[in-house]
């Protein structure tokens, strides 16, 4: 039988630091632990929630669910022709994984440094930063298919990655539990410096190394984003909305300083942080929750608040942005 804990406190398992309890919780350190927990009669009929670092969730209250705390370790490197394949257990800390690959001479993940969370959660969100998305470095993943009752391997196409989106946020949300991720890192590496702020940080370096790119990303993120160990947060709370070129053109007529980025399909991604800032929310404190003073995309929890209070603030921000700009911004984190 699984080693379940009843009414397990989750405050340390979500980076917002909200108090909540799980009806049942189990630490998953091996694939056998996972199968055993799912088959345990005490969990029969209960919803299953998988938590890694808890850096992309908002807990709105106690969970009447079986919470699986994903802690499967692992790190392996294989030679695949023009690429290195790095396989990490789902419980591996993402930033530690990035640093290890760079130290091992396996560049490719450096732009994704300091993103909180675990390797197993990275595909769910299709994490991305400073010009690189996970799907560009993705080979495959291993997951337990609850519907089929067996472990499966899913490739890039099967995961259906989108902007901060994937199969695992839609049809596969309750079906698949990720246990390992394999990343494809090119041997013919070149730094990705098409993000303006990162290029400026590395100005003066003719040929920056992967370690220098990683350190620059860490420096930028540290200046802009609060440390979850000090201030509860989940990084960027809202997605950058994508709009047709015609809508962006119309917005520019009224807002010439609008910050936007062209997309391959001709649409434009708008900077949600700029939209929020224009509505006067940056630095707002709403009791125990608020908007970070250095980055309007980040909602924070100072302690003693609730997920419900945070969502109320998020809705207020989204409503105000929509009323002013005619654009709806959506949250990135999973709401539980």
Automatic annotation (TrEMBL):
<protein>
    <recommendedName>
        <fullName>UDP-N-acetylenolpyruvoylglucosamine reductase</fullName>
        <ecNumber>1.3.1.98</ecNumber>
    </recommendedName>
</protein>
<dbReference type="InterPro" id="IPR016169">
    <property type="entry name" value="FAD-bd_PCMH_sub2"/>
</dbReference>
<feature type="domain" description="FAD-binding PCMH-type">
    <location>
        <begin position="18"/>
        <end position="188"/>
    </location>
</feature>
<dbReference type="GO" id="GO:0009252">
    <property type="term" value="P:peptidoglycan biosynthetic process"/>
</dbReference>
<feature type="active site" description="Proton donor">
    <location>
        <position position="236"/>
    </location>
</feature>
<keyword id="KW-0274">FAD</keyword>
<comment type="pathway">
    <text>Cell wall biogenesis; peptidoglycan biosynthesis.</text>
</comment>
<dbReference type="GO" id="GO:0051301">
    <property type="term" value="P:cell division"/>
</dbReference>
<keyword id="KW-0285">Flavoprotein</keyword>
<keyword id="KW-0560">Oxidoreductase</keyword>
<dbReference type="InterPro" id="IPR036635">
    <property type="entry name" value="MurB_C_sf"/>
</dbReference>
<dbReference type="InterPro" id="IPR036318">
    <property type="entry name" value="FAD-bd_PCMH-like_sf"/>
</dbReference>
<dbReference type="GO" id="GO:0071555">
    <property type="term" value="P:cell wall organization"/>
</dbReference>
<dbReference type="GO" id="GO:0008360">
    <property type="term" value="P:regulation of cell shape"/>
</dbReference>
<feature type="active site">
    <location>
        <position position="332"/>
    </location>
</feature>
<keyword id="KW-0132">Cell division</keyword>
<comment type="similarity">
    <text>Belongs to the MurB family.</text>
</comment>
<dbReference type="InterPro" id="IPR006094">
    <property type="entry name" value="Oxid_FAD_bind_N"/>
</dbReference>
<comment type="function">
    <text>Cell wall formation.</text>
</comment>
<dbReference type="GO" id="GO:0005829">
    <property type="term" value="C:cytosol"/>
</dbReference>
<keyword id="KW-0133">Cell shape</keyword>
<dbReference type="Pfam" id="PF01565">
    <property type="entry name" value="FAD_binding_4"/>
</dbReference>
<keyword id="KW-0521">NADP</keyword>
<dbReference type="InterPro" id="IPR016166">
    <property type="entry name" value="FAD-bd_PCMH"/>
</dbReference>
<feature type="active site">
    <location>
        <position position="164"/>
    </location>
</feature>
<keyword id="KW-0963">Cytoplasm</keyword>
<dbReference type="InterPro" id="IPR011601">
    <property type="entry name" value="MurB_C"/>
</dbReference>
<dbReference type="GO" id="GO:0008762">
    <property type="term" value="F:UDP-N-acetylmuramate dehydrogenase activity"/>
</dbReference>
<dbReference type="Pfam" id="PF02873">
    <property type="entry name" value="MurB_C"/>
</dbReference>
<keyword id="KW-0131">Cell cycle</keyword>
<dbReference type="GO" id="GO:0071949">
    <property type="term" value="F:FAD binding"/>
</dbReference>
<dbReference type="InterPro" id="IPR003170">
    <property type="entry name" value="MurB"/>
</dbReference>
<dbReference type="InterPro" id="IPR016167">
    <property type="entry name" value="FAD-bd_PCMH_sub1"/>
</dbReference>
<keyword id="KW-0961">Cell wall biogenesis/degradation</keyword>
<keyword id="KW-0573">Peptidoglycan synthesis</keyword>
């Amino acid at each position: 039988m699984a080693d379940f804990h009843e009414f397990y406190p989750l405050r340390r398992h979500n980076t917002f630091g909200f108090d909540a309890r799980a009806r049942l919780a189990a630490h998953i350190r091996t694939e056998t632990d996972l199968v055993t927990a799912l088959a345990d009669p005490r969990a029969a009929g209960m919803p299953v929630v998988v938590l890694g670092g808890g850096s992309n969730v908002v807990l709105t209250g106690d969970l009447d669910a079986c919470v699986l705390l994903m802690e499967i370790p692992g790190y392996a490197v294989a030679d695949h022709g023009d690429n290195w394949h790095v396989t990490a257990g789902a419980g591996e800390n993402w930033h530690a994984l990035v640093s290890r690959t760079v130290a091992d001479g396996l560049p490719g993940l450096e732009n994704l440094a300091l993103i909180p969370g675990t390797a197993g959660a990275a595909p769910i969100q299709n994490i991305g930063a400073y010009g690189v998305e996970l799907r560009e470095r993705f080979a495959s993943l291993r997951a337990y298919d609850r519907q089929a009752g067996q472990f499966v391997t899913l490739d890039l196409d099967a995961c259906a990655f989108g902007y901060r989106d994937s199969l695992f946020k839609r049809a596969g949300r309750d079906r698949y539990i990720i246990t390992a991720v394999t990343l494809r890192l090119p041997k013919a590496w070149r730094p990705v410096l098409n993000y303006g702020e990162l290029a400026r940080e590395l100005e003066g370096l003719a040929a920056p190394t992967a370690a220098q790119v990683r350190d620059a990303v860490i420096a930028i993120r540290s200046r802009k984003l609060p440390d979850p160990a000090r201030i509860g947060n989940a990084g960027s709370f809202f997605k950058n909305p994508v709009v047709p070129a015609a809508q962006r053109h119309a917005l520019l007529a009224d807002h010439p300083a609008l910050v936007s980025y062209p997309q391959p399909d001709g649409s434009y991604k708008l900077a949600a942080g700029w939209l929020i800032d224009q509505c006067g929310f940056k630095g707002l404190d709403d009791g125990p929750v608020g908007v970070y003073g250095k980055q309007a995309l980040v909602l924070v929890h100072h302690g003693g608040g609730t997920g419900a209070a945070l969502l109320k603030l998020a809705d207020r921000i989204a409503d105000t942005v929509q009323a002013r700009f005619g654009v709806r911004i959506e949250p990135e984190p999973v709401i539980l």
